[in-house]
Amino acid sequence: MQEGMYAREWMLQIIRARMAFRKAVQNALKEKNTDITFEMLQVLCSLWQEQGISQQKLAERIFKGKACLTNLMNNLEKKGLVRREEDCTDRRNKRVYLTNEGVLFKERLNPILNDVYVFVEKKFGLEKVKKGCMELKDLHDVLESY
After folding, report:
1. Domain for residue 135, yes or no?
2. Nearest one of 41, 61, 42 to 53, comparing CA atoms
3. What is the CATH number of the domain that holds 27?
4. What does DSSP say about strands 82-86 and 53-54: parallel, antiparallel, or unpaired?
5. Band (110; pLDDT cuts 50, 70, 90)
6. 33 lies in a domain?
7. Residue 21 domain boundaries
8. pTM of the predicted structure, to 2 decimals
9. Tally: H helices and E strands in the chain
10. pLDDT tens-digit profile of 21-50?
11. Which residues fall within 8 angstroms of residue 97, CB to CB, at 6 or more apart?
């Protein structure tokens, strides 16, 4: 077998697993009538970790372009979950914050997301999940050193 083929297959399987995860989360969100998309969830999750970040930093964290993020932000603002404020140090930038409703929305979403995670642990097995997590952290470190 050609050198690097196993690593290539491993990366492909990681990508496929991410796509399957996304689909599972989208299905769970739709089933519970949350009226948000996976992409909106990515924005909210980033803001639950750190509020007041710039739109540029937010776009980098969720791997979206500026135009896509602007559309997401407009939709989240319409839903009353986020607000944007002008950056006092650079008027060209906007800082993004959760509204009170956005903060409370986390309480509604946590059980939905947790159901997906519990399902994976039960179907896949806790020990496999723990081992896979450690291996993916190691893979991250290797790739970061390239």
Report:
1. yes
2. 61
3. 1.10.10.10
4. unpaired
5. very high
6. yes
7. 6-144
8. 0.86
9. 6, 3
10. 999 999 999 999 999 999 999 999 999 999
11. 47, 51, 52, 82, 83, 84, 85
